[in-house]
Design brief:
Strand content: under 5%
Number of helices: 12
Shape: elongated
Radius of gyration: 21 Å
Number of domains: 2
Order of helices and strands: HHHHHHHHHHHH
Length: about 230
């Protein structure tokens, strides 16, 4: 009987990571043991430690989901000319990227979401690093678009800084995602998921201070949906 096919060190390392991701995503950092990962990867504990010195090191490696996604979005964001319309588009993109499947992400996106939520409950490192990458990716074009909206009179002055408004919108999108992360949503909004997202975006951009006139002029969901091709 032929033996198992030999694989090189990089392939073995990737196999371990692929085995670890769904375990961390489904059971959290604390609920997953090195033995669980070794068993799922079909390797011994000793061989696993040859590639990773600790469970924490494997957890850190899994952050590569955002390493794949964010640089691509950043390159395309930097091509956008800051304006009120782009400010609305960026926040629309937040909701669409968080609530709907990112093309080409496959299972990685769902695992990333579960890892993020588990991280908020226990080992905060994954969430902190992931959210920091998001902020670094979007901060410059968001800041310039806020300034453009203020200069155009499209946004009212609020006693809330831009960074907080940025995060408030993101947290609303994350909260909606959390309520729908299982196959059965936690709430029945009595509308389609697409309409729910569009209503949430409207609620969010109104909340950050955009005027009715600016929203009426620039908040065109069908156009914004088409503009998503600019990012992906």
């Amino acid at each position: 009987m032929p033996g198992k096919q030999r694989i090189n060190a990089e392939e073995r390392k990737q196999k371990i990571i692929d085995a670890a991701k769904p375990l961390f995503a489904n059971y959290g950092f604390n609920g997953t043991s090195v033995r669980d990962i070794a068993r799922a990867a079909d390797v011994s504990n000793a061989l696993l430690y040859k590639h990773f010195p600790s469970k924490e090191a494997m957890y850190e490696e899994i952050l590569n989901y955002t390493d794949w996604l964010y640089p691509k979005i950043l390159r395309n964001m930097n091509k956008l000319e800051p304006s009120t319309e782009i400010l609305i588009f960026i926040f629309y993109a937040f909701f669409r990227l968080i609530l709907f499947e990112v093309p080409g992400s496959g299972r990685n996106q769902k695992e990333h979401e579960r890892l993020l939520f588990y991280s908020l409950l226990e080992n905060i490192d994954y969430a902190r690093k992931s959210l920091n990458k998001l902020y670094v990716t979007a901060e410059e074009v968001v800041r310039k678009s806020f300034l453009a909206a203020e200069k155009s009179g499209d946004i009212i002055k609020l006693g809330i800084d831009r960074r907080s408004r940025f995060w408030f919108i993101h947290h609303l999108a994350m909260g909606l995602n959390l309520c729908h992360i299982s196959d059965e949503p936690a709430f029945d909004y009595d509308t389609t998921f697409e309409n729910l997202m569009e209503d949430a975006v409207y609620f969010a951009i109104r909340g950050i201070g955009l005027t009715d006139k600016a929203i009426e002029k620039y908040y065109k969901p069908e156009k914004l949906k088409e503009m998503m091709k600019l990012l992906l």
